Amino acid sequence: MFNTNFKRYLIKLCLLTIITVLLCILFDTFADESYVSKAIYFFPPFFFLISLAGRLVFEYLNYKNSKWLSHSVLGIRVAKFIIYIAVVLLYAFNAREDAANFILTFFVFYLVFTYFDVRTMYSFLKK
């Protein structure tokens, strides 16, 4: 089921996650603690799992030659976005003192991982 494209995607996703973990460590070490969210180490594995789950669904539909493949790209994006909004809202309401730092850090991770997903999806669909 898993072809070489998926294996390449998984390797790149792991490398991106490792890089973001290292950047989290650097940011936590050198930045003023008033700018660092308490949940900063939660972001890399969270985005890794969400990205991987979205790609697994896409690969499954591609493997089955589903007629829903073209619609699944948008559906996966919408589902991921809803999960992201739910996490941000739940955290912001439960930890109000850390909400601003959490949302800003979450947004940076969202941009990085969404860019990665769109870029890899574009190269996949182009082929």
Polypeptide structure, described:
The protein is an all-alpha fold and 127 residues long. The protein has one domain (4-126). The protein has helices spanning 4-30, 43-63, 69-94, 99-126. The longest helix has 28 residues, at 99-126. The radius of gyration is 16 Å and the shape is globular. The two termini are 18 Å apart.
Q: Which parts are unreliable, with pLDDT below 50 for 5 consecutive residues or more? A: none
**N- to C-terminal distance:** 18 Å
Number of strands: 0
H/I helix tally: 4
H/E element sequence: HHHH
- Return the domain count: 1
Mean pLDDT: 90
Oligomeric status: single chain
Largest sheet: none
Helix percent band: over 70%
Shape: globular
Structural class, by secondary structure, is mainly alpha
Topology, please?
Layout: H1 4-30, H2 43-63, H3 69-94, H4 99-126
Helix pairs in contact: 1-2, 1-4, 2-3, 2-4, 3-4
Structural key phrases:
mainly alpha, single chain, globular, 127 residues, 4 helices
